[in-house]
Specification:
This protein is an alpha/beta fold. It is built from eleven helices and eight strands. The protein has an eight-stranded parallel β-barrel, surrounded by seven helices.
């Protein structure tokens, strides 16, 4: 079934958990989509897992458009949400609307995601008024890594928790149809999920959120640079890939690949010396 903003909102209403995974290319998006996922996030996390950056701050609009368009070609049913990269919306409300529009027109996104709460109320509102659905992102916002001093859990004391609650309410009031909440205590996430009418998608936010999202390389054991506490490894694809690569290398060096099964034959005998 084709997923839309309306169907995602209905899932919250019906207390049906929402599933979301990242994807950054055609073939992976197709596999995830065929598995029945509700939403695919083309995250600026591609800076880490696809481009090898230390953080997401170097990711550009061109990067996001390129990868989003590939995902859009592979996914037929999932709702595609594409991240707005660092400094594509912080500069002005105008820039936010223009760049959100590019992600839809050029990147094939169905919705965009941006980080921040009360500070970006007007940005979210303007994008929504341009008929572009928005997903918010609060709590530990990776684009603020320098402000936070690292990738740290947010909202652990009363003052910080109150700020995240305020941000959640602002994102909803601005017109976002969902919000991602990252690295916050589970009790805080539960409270916010209960007071918001829009779905709360958790990542490192406990079991009480309306849905969950993970980076697919993390949950498949493909990214060994850093594994957050909240990641559950559902398969060890990284080692499976390395084993396959090693087998290929050995067979090529030994001459056992390709064999006749993987080779082509002539239609007739040819004396190549006479050609």
């Amino acid at each position: 079934m084709k997923k839309t903003v309306a169907t995602i909102l209905k899932q919250k209403e019906n207390h049906e958990r929402i599933t979301m995974l990242t994807a950054y290319d055609y073939s992976t998006a197709r596999l995830i989509d065929e598995s029945g996922i509700d939403m695919i996030l083309v995250g600026d996390s591609l800076g880490n897992v696809m481009l090898g950056y230390e953080n997401t701050l170097s990711v550009t609009m061109e990067d996001m458009i390129h990868h989003s368009a590939a995902v859009a070609r592979g996914a037929k049913n999932a709702l595609i949400v594409t991240d707005m990269p660092f400094m594509s919306y912080q500069t002005s409300v105008y820039d936010a609307v223009v760049n959100a529009g590019r992600l839809v027109k050029e990147g094939g996104a169905h919705a965009v995601k941006l980080e921040g709460g009360t500070e970006f109320y007007e940005h979210i509102k303007a994008i929504v008024n341009a008929s572009i659905p928005v997903v918010g992102h609060i709590g530990m916002t990776p684009q603020s890594v320098n402000k936070f001093g690292g990738f740290t859990v947010q909202g652990r004391d009363a003052k910080a928790a109150a700020k995240i609650i305020e941000d959640a309410k602002a994102v909803e009031a601005a017109g976002a149809f969902a919000v991602v909440m990252e690295c916050v205590p589970d009790k805080l996430a539960k409270h916010i999920s209960e007071i918001l009418s829009i779905p709360v998608i958790g990542i490192g936010a406990g079991e009480s959120c309306d849905g969950q999202v993970l980076v697919y390389q993390d949950m498949l054991g493909m990214y060994s640079d850093f594994t957050p506490k909240f990641v559950k490894k559902y398969a060890d694809i990284g080692n499976v890939m390395k084993t396959a690569f090693s087998s290929y290398i050995q067979e090529v060096k030994s001459g056992s690949f390709p064999d006749k099964e993987h080779s082509f034959t002539l239609k007739e005998d040819i004396n190549f010396d006479e050609l």
